[in-house]
Amino acid sequence: MPHQEPHHHRDRRDHGHHHRHQSSVPEFRFSVEIAVLVRSRRFEHKTVEALQEEVGHRLALAGVLNYHIASGLKSENFKDWTIASSLSVQSRPREHKYGIKLVSPYMPFAWFDVWKAQIRAVLHVLNNDFETTTQHQCGTSIHIVPMAGYWHLSQAKALAKSAVYFESCLDRLMPLYRRKSVMAKSNRWNPYFGGLSPAQCLEKIEAQPSFQALAARMNWCAKESATGIALRKKDDFQHDGFRWNFINVGVLNGHSPIEYRQPPGVTESSDMIAWISLVVCFAQMSVANADTLKGTRTAQLSKLAEMIYDQAKRANVPRASLIKGLVEQADPPPAGAKHDRMVLAWPDQTNITIDDDQRLRWREKEPSIARDKYWNLVKDRTPTEPAARLRW
What we know:
Elements: E1 28-40, H1 48-61, E2 66-68, E3 81-85, E4 98-103, E5 107-108, H2 112-128, E6 130-133, E7 139-146, H3 153-165, H4 167-171, H5 176-179, H6 198-207, H7 211-218, E8 220-221, H8 226-230, E9 237-238, E10 244-245, H9 247-251, E11 258-260, H10 269-288, H11 301-314, H12 321-328, H13 354-363, H14 369-377
Parallel strand pairs: 2-3
Antiparallel strand pairs: 1-4, 1-5, 1-6, 1-7, 3-4, 7-11, 8-9, 10-11
Region (Disordered): 1-24
Organism: Apodospora peruviana
Protein name: Amidoligase enzyme-domain-containing protein
């Protein structure tokens, strides 16, 4: 087991829905990671490196600063987009289609015009100069960190509580394959939280004494799970392939982004903007209402949507209606559901495909580009020192 369960710091407050009381809401910075399947409209590339080079060239012509890892350059310039192979997306070389990912620099969420222009430019190039498609293996990851450059433990706990409590609501916004993806497993139904009620989950999260303990609970994977078997684990372990990835924030004592991995692959700028806005507003809402979340009732998407819309208004998010568009497309809850589980069979307790087995092992070799970008943004990389001295 990753950690012994602490017997202190129990939270005896009443838990249920959020109320209107608000704590201080931090501003956030984010990086978005787009994993898609791409084919050139002009050339029949025989290697992914050649495709990456063309993507980089086209982005540069569109005014988007970038580099691709195949060029041999290091990620020292944290202000640029990064183009890299995605081992999680199966390439089809005979069709000249390759799985790649594009990782943005960390951008202040409040600089709406700046980052939205970047998103539109990148996706315009991908759609205009390339055939860009999504498949079940594609996904979008959003990495968030307070503008101060680090999380307070109370802030990370607040996000963890909302992530677990509202998981079934967010699941309804996802296509079925993203609810069952072994690359975005359920935090709520992991081996630690799976046998607990929502209120008990929130109590356990509040009781965690450190970032390390919190990350272990949120990303706990059993050795006998499909993931553990695929990776040949001999003991329970932490795995980053959950809906919310807290591992780096645990390793680096709060001085790291937290990653939301569940959104599907996206090729339309309006959809990408909607997902980014939803995730950041969700995090802000979680921190703002940290002391008032209860777990005595089943989470409701309508209530969650109302709180996210309210936060979007407070943050002056332009075109917050895009978030409403995601909610309006939500699937209905399971008929007769009396609990907070959206998907009755979740991936790590069922057999996975040979492809997923291979992808899990391939992905172990992939560097965390977004994490490295964050650390290239930080002058003093000593985790025990305050991370306020950032090159913003």
